[in-house]
Design a protein that fits this description.
The complex is a heterodimer of chains A (about 250) and B (about 400).
Chain A (H helix, E strand, L loop, with lengths): L1 H12 L3 E7 L2 E6 L4 H10 L7 E9 L7 E8 L6 E8 L8 E3 L8 H12 L2 E3 L36 H4 L19 H5 L27 H7 L13 H11 L1
Chain B lengths: L9 H4 L6 E5 L11 E7 L2 E8 L7 H5 L8 H5 L6 H16 L5 H29 L3 H22 L8 E2 L2 E2 L7 H24 L2 H7 L7 H6 L4 H6 L6 H4 L20 H25 L18 H6 L1 H12 L7 E8 L4 E8 L7 E5 L2 H6 L1 H5 L7 H8 L3 H4 L2
Helix pairs in contact in B: 4-5, 5-6, 5-12, 5-17, 6-7, 7-12, 12-17
Classes of the chains: A alpha/beta (about 250), B mainly alpha (about 400).
């Protein structure tokens, strides 16, 4: 069975397959990074192979080798009950150029796995819909599963925003912002129709968020500070206040 | 109080409609303390949801690269902390696959018995907690009582209730105790009785049924595309159980059925788990029947097994062997392996790379509930806010496993 998978791949992609090996029950092959997505597409769509389940994706770092990061993919076919392991290598010694095409369009399940490999191993997936850290927090520096990331390394504390950034004195700042970690959320909504503040910033980059008067706790905090709210995002306040006035009367 | 009589125009009477943003978790009791869901609501309907994990990340994979192969066992205990024995066995099988070790028959039966006990405890916790989160507290207490029986057996066998660290490369830490079979048989009858009683309480409860049926539906095709495995996938009608599809240990020699659901809703996931408890009981009965009462539980291989303590203190060979195994660790041949077993939530995979030394070069765990939680967003979008709790409960998310 596995031999047949191998022959089909060889016939179709030829030079893109660098190494093949059969080790401990699972066929594995090493392919070039350029052909990564097309091979994945082929493995899923070819009816005799039918790899419909994305099982696992991980990065293995070999600092002494070039390219250094080996990305390992495991696939399974629920109909034919066979498995395959697909590998490719990306990245130079500083993990530059560690890019790979995302296969989220081939298997939906690849989404979080690719985010995880990006987070822990530092491989960037081109075309991923929402590539941000998943297990680590957004301010985390480095990628912990690289072999040159020391296990005892400590991370810098996430700093408070400066007074200029937040628009409130330091002692009045909450330890976290109201929209912190919200991939979409208050900030996004307020700026939705605002052309001056495009929201296509990479998600999870909190530092780039600008203060807005409507964001949660700042309503109260702003009262004491000389902070003029930016004009464009005032929600329609007219109808909002009316019901409360009715109750009072 | 006088009725409010104000002159208002049409437009003013309408309430302002703007999406509300709600932050559910991580300290919400139904989020198990480890998940956060950012929601955009329109009324009570969820327009957008973003599931965020990582609150329980402890760097499992990085830690594994620092000790010996045997020192990983305590870490795997803490991955799925509801059924640690399944992880122990899964990891032991993976390392043995690399070393080319086949454990003795008695050990294989023993591992199956302990594994099925752990699976029962896993499913009891999940179904019980699901009921509790919907307000049915009594069945939860009953199921926990049943789980205590399982844990009492495991405590008797391993010495620890939860974090057993009982697996070894090439066997188990100790042979079964003398009363193991009787203990199991006695407890099983009671557990099934409790499950039946709990079922009667829940499955005739209008509120419980209404909150489960036709909610959180996912088709088999979608579930496969999302890489779901285990009870959640089987509830969608795909009969993929590794114990049947790719039998390991002695699963090909025992007789059991793989329950599957029809609709893939919360109710199906609940029922599949309850049925799997019964199937585990069936497996256990056969295992207890066939497990030999004597014989070795560990391989007689000095490369991986620690020598008997008595020899360590009296002979130089055993002392050296002990020293080498503790200080350098068992040498695992150079190579890589992907080993997969059926965990409580589905396919528990270990992809491991060895450079031939006593320390793992890379241990990658494929946690079954990681892709399942990834699918949560799809299940709750366009549903009501109150559907999150039963849907999330039915997925049985285990933080330790999902966040590594």
């Amino acid at each position: 069975m596995s031999k047949a998978v191998l022959q089909k791949l060889k016939a179709k992609f030829g030079d893109a397959i660098l190494e093949t090996h059969s080790d401990l029950e699972i066929e594995r092959r090493l392919v070039t990074a350029q052909s990564w997505k097309s091979i994945c597409q082929y493995l899923r769509d070819e009816s005799t192979l039918d790899f419909d389940m994305f099982v696992d994706l991980c990065g293995v770092d070999y600092p002494a080798r070039l390219p250094r990061m080996e990305v390992v993919l495991h696939l399974y076919s629920t109909t034919r009950r066979h498995r395959v392991r697909l590998k490719t290598r990306v990245g130079d010694e500083d993990m530059e150029e560690a890019n790979l095409d995302s296969v989220t369009s081939v298997w939906v399940g690849a989404d979080w796995f690719e985010r995880e490999v990006y987070d822990l191993s530092g491989v960037t997936f081109r075309g991923h819909p929402d590539l941000r850290r998943i297990l680590m927090y957004p301010e985390f520096q480095g990628h912990p599963l690289l072999k040159d990331y020391p296990a005892q390394k400590t991370q810098p504390l996430v700093e408070y925003r400066t007074e200029a950034e937040a628009g409130v004195p330091l002692e009045k700042q909450a330890p976290f912002r109201a929209d912190e970690g919200m991939s979409f959320g208050r900030f996004d909504w307020l700026h939705r129709n605002d052309e001056e503040n495009p929201t296509d910033e990479p998600l999870g980059v909190v530092h780039s968020m600008k203060p807005s008067p409507e964001a949660g706790y700042r309503n109260g905090a702003d009262a004491g500070a000389n902070h003029t709210p930016p004009e464009p995002h005032q929600p329609k306040q007219g109808p909002k206040q009316d019901p409360s006035q009715e109750k009072v009367s | 109080m006088e009725p409010i009589d104000l002159e208002l125009e049409e437009g003013e009477l309408e309430l302002p409609a703007e999406p509300m943003h709600l932050n559910m978790g991580p300290s919400h009791p139904a989020m198990h303390g480890t998940v956060r869901i950012v929601l955009e609501l329109s009324g009570e309907t969820i327009v957008k949801a973003d599931v965020q994990i990582g609150y329980l990340h402890r760097g499992f994979e990085k830690m594994c690269e620092r000790g010996t192969w045997a020192q990983v066992f305590p870490y795997v205990d803490r991955l799925n902390y509801v059924s640690p024995m399944l992880n122990n066995v899964g990891y032991a099988l993976a390392v043995e696959k690399m070393c080319g070790i086949q454990v003795p028959d008695r050990c294989q039966w023993y591992r199956m018995a302990l594994g099925e006990l752990a699976r029962i405890s896993d499913h009891l916790t999940c179904t019980g907690a699901m009921a509790m989160e919907l307000g049915a507290f009594t069945p939860f207490l009953w199921f926990i009582k049943a789980r205590e029986m399982v844990w009492d057996i495991l405590e008797e066998e391993t010495g620890a209730r939860l974090t057993h660290s009982f697996g070894r490369i090439g066997g188990m830490a100790a042979p079964p105790t003398r009363g193991f079979k009787e203990l199991c048989r006695g407890a099983l009858a009671q557990i099934i009785h409790i499950v039946e009683e709990g079922e009667k309480m829940l499955l005739r409860n209008r509120i419980f049924i209404d909150r489960l049926e036709n909610i959180g539906i996912i088709s088999g095709k979608d579930a496969v595309a999302l890489s779901w495995t285990g009870p959640c996938l089987r509830a969608s009608g795909v009969a993929y159980d590794i114990r049947k599809a790719h039998p390991y240990l002695k699963y090909d020699e025992v007789d059991f059925d793989v329950p599957i659901g029809k609709h893939g809703d919360n109710m199906d996931r609940f029922l599949v788990r309850l049925e799997e408890i019964r199937q585990s009981k069936r497996i256990l009965e056969q295992v207890l029947e066939r497990m030999p009462d004597d014989g070795p539980v560990s391989v007689d291989d000095p490369r991986v097994m620690l020598p008997p303590k008595g020899d360590v203190y009296t002979t130089i060979e055993a002392t050296i062997q002990h020293f080498k195994l503790i200080m350098e660790g068992a040498k695992v041949p150079k190579g890589e392996v992907y080993s997969y077993t059926e965990g409580g939530n589905g396919e528990l995979g270990f992809y491991m790379v060895s450079d031939g030394s006593g320390t793992p070069y890379r241990v990658r765990i494929r946690p079954p509930c990681f892709p399942i939680v990834a699918g949560l967003q799809k299940l709750i979008t366009d549903r009501m806010l109150s559907d999150i709790v039963p849907t999330f409960g039915s997925l049985n998310m285990i933080g330790g496993e999902c966040d590594h």
